[in-house]
Structures are given as C-alpha cells and as structure tokens.
Amino acid sequence: MKKLDQFNFKGKKVLIRVDFNVPQDNALRVTDKTRIQAAKPTIMKVLEDGGSVILLTHLGRPKGNKSDELSLRHIAGTVSDVLGIVVDVATDVVGEDAKAKAAALSPGNVLMLENMRFREEEEKGSKDFAEQLAALGDYYINDAFGTAHREHASTAVIAQFFDQDHKAFGYLMDKELAAIDKVLHSGEKPVLAILGGAKVSSKITIIDNILPAIDKLIIGGGMTYTFIKAQGGEVGDSICEEDKLDLALKILEEAKRQNVEVYLPTDVIAADDFNNGAKTQIVPVDKIPEGWQGLDIGPDSIQKFQQVISTANTILWNGPVGVFEFENFSKGTKAMGDAIDEVTKKGAFSLVGGGDSVAAVKQFGYEDKVSYVSTGGGAMLESLEGVKLPGVAAMEKS
Ligand code: AMP
Question: Which of 4, 228, 297, 390 has the most crowded CB, counting CB atoms within 10 A?
C-alpha cells in the first residue's frame, strides 16, 4: 500500500474517515478533543497539498435514526477550533445537502457529513450506501483506528470503490499499526507485556496471541488472584474466577513451554472492603485472610516488577495492576508508569493500549512519557488478540 506522503491531493476532493466519537457534557460541548487533534495532521496534509476534505465520522449510537442530540453540528465548533478552519456540516449523510456541499467544495475547504450512524446502512455495511459516499470524493483515506474493528460502510466497505492509487491510511492509523507491529513482530528483545485489569477471562485471547512474541510477562490487577488460587494460594475475598482456575494453570504451562518468564505479585495491599477508605494491610499474595481482598500490588512486588521493566527493550502495557480509581490503591499502577517512563527515556519502546490502562496513563500524566498511547480501545484489544481488523483488511485489497 502507498503511504500518505506519496500522494499529492492538489485540486482533489478527499474523503477522510475519522473517529470523532468524542465525549460531550450535558450541554453537548466536547469535553476531550484528543481524537480530533489526533486526526489533524492527516487533514492538514490534504489541505496543504491544495485539496479539499470531506470528513466522515459517527458519534454515539443513534442506531440508524436521526437524533438532534447526536448531530455533528454540536462538535463542528470544536473541530473548527482544532483545525483553525471553519468546518461546514451537511444536514444529511449522503442526501441532497451532502451532495450539493461536496460538489461546491473549493481547495482548502472542509465539509463534515452528518453522523454516519444516522443511516442504518452504515452499521449494516451496505455496499450501495458505501458507493454513494465514495462518489462524493476522488480519494479515500482511513484514519479511524478507533473504528477499524468494525466492518461498517464508511470504515471498511467503501474502500473497494478506490484502487490502490486512490486510497491510503492516514498518519494516525499508520502510527497505531506501526506501534502494534513493533510490539508483536519487530520489537527489540527482551519484549515485556504487563497485563492487568479485572479478569483473566477478558484477557485470555490476548495472552494466547502474544505469548509467541514476548519474553517476559508481568501479571497484575484482579487477574492475579485466579492464578494464585489455581496454584493453591489463599486469596481471601479477592476477585477470583473459580471457573478459570484450570485455564490459569494452562496459561502458566504454555508460557513455560514457550520460554516466557512469568512474574506474579509476591505481596499485595489487602483491604477489608472495596472502597478507598477501607482498612488495609500488606500480606503475601498467597496468604490473604478471609474478609480481605487484594486491591493493589505491595512494595515487594513493585520493586520486583520495576526491576523487570528496567531491563526490557519493548513494552506492552494493558490493564492497571490495582484498583487505580481509588487513590489508596493506585500506587502500584503509578509505580509501573514510573518504571516505564525511566526505561523509555533510556531508549525502550513502550506502548500503552486497550481500555483502562489508557485512562490510568492519562490520569497520572504518563501520556507523554511512554512511546505511544493507543487511541483505539476495542481496535487495539482486537489487534492484540490477533484479529485482522476489517478496516485494515479492506484497504489492503486492490
Ligand atoms: P480491564 O478493563 O480488564 O483492564 O480492567 C480494569 C479494571 O480492573 C479497573 O477498573 C480496575 O479497578 C480493576 N482492577 C484492577 N485490579 C483489581 C483488583 N485487585 N481487584 C478488583 N479490580 C481490580
């Protein structure tokens, strides 16, 4: 596939699928511009070439119905501010207004079509609908990593109406795919994965898929206790998936078979209740008393994990190692962030992706200290699980 920089869009109309599914407050004001800022370089490339841009995105879940609340009118002001250009919004998705406004575009103009999901054909992946969208522009750029795991009309199906000389990934999409590739295929060894979060069951496919790519695996968070109990430890009232004990043992065996060193916590901060103000004590991970639950890793685990992190050259971090939402149980997760920061400064590549680890990294200010923070929760998780993303596969076909 050609890279975006190999194209010159002078005088051309370029459809760009972005992911502007941004959070809004009660007055429908955008509360986090990250996704809009992330797409800006791609949009500016087209405009600076002398082309015009037609933005395609969804917002929320209107499920095929028009809804005033989910109209892109409400986010257009923020998009205009971020781009420094007044962005026009069509009153429909691919109707008369969209067609007329797209036809009237001049170089340097930006038009946003209405919410893709106002049309039920979007999520159904309708070929007709995709073809109508495709007819509005000369080129198609997919920069929506956050929706690349969906086989929708504007994220995947549309790509078939453009040949390899008329479609490309945007810069954001390219960066996301490169980051995943670096961790799963071309990372400098030792490659370390730090997996946390609540449950083994939600991470099992990721573990299966990444084992061949990694040398070391740190397991933290709520997942820990299923592994500890499976090995005969006492986990008290800690979160534990009783029906996954065998699976936990199988994972450990498989890791051993593949020469992956697994590090589990040695001590934990146990609480007498699931709240920030609960009484706490530091106990060995396999001797948690009844009535107590492990909510964060302890000081000995922190030290050991930091040591492992300091020797890694490539790091994937998915999932917090404690209940980081409670200040009193966020120490372990912050300590992981500190250690990743240190080793990244020394030249290691660190990718944080998928779900709550991104929230933790943002909350504690590590966003600019790791090499890359993924913008796509579900898409990143599916990539780590080894799924070929439909939005990516569709672009690779000629
Ligand atoms: P996930 O979405 O699977 O990455 O899970 C993230 C959630 O796991 C966060 O909301 C954490 O609060 C939670 N978590 C982490 N450690 C624990 C723990 N020891 N006990 C219960 N929940 C935990």
Answer: 297
**CA dist 33 → 29, 362, 395 (Å):** 10, 13, 27
pLDDT of 355 over the 80 cut? no
Q: Residue 46 Cα, ligand 1 centroid: separation in angstroms?
A: 41
pTM flag (> 0.85)? yes
CA distances from 20 to 108, 122, 206, 293, 363 (A): 20, 15, 27, 39, 21
Q: Which tens digits make up the pLDDT trace of 16-41?
A: 999 999 999 999 999 999 899 999 99
What mean pLDDT do residues 359-365 have?
88
Ligand 1 centroid to Cα of residue 88, in Å, is: 42
Candidates 239, 364, 385: which one to mutate for ligand 1, based on the most atoms within 8 Å of Cβ?
239
Taking the centre of ligand 1 as the mean of its atom positions, its distance from the CA of residue 249, in whole angstroms, is 21
Per-residue pLDDT of 216-265, as tens digits, reads 999 999 999 999 999 999 999 999 999 999 999 999 999 999 999 999 99
Q: Are 156 and 129 in contact (CB under 8 A)?
A: no
Q: Which residues contact ligand 1 via a Cβ below 6 A?
A: 196-199, 202, 221-222, 239, 294-295, 319-320, 322-323, 325, 355-356
What is the reported pLDDT for 284?
Answer: 98
Indicate if the pLDDT at residue 360 is higher than 90. Answer: no
User: Which ranges constitute the DSSP H helices of the chain?
Assistant: 34-49, 73-83, 96-103, 120-124, 127-134, 171-184, 204-210, 224-230, 245-257, 299-310, 331-345, 356-363, 377-384, 390-396
Q: What is 79-131 written as a DSSP string?
A: HHHHHTSPEEE-SSSSSHHHHHHHHT--TT-EEE-S-GGGSHHHHHT-HHHHH
Q: Which residues are catalytic?
A: 35, 199, 355, 378
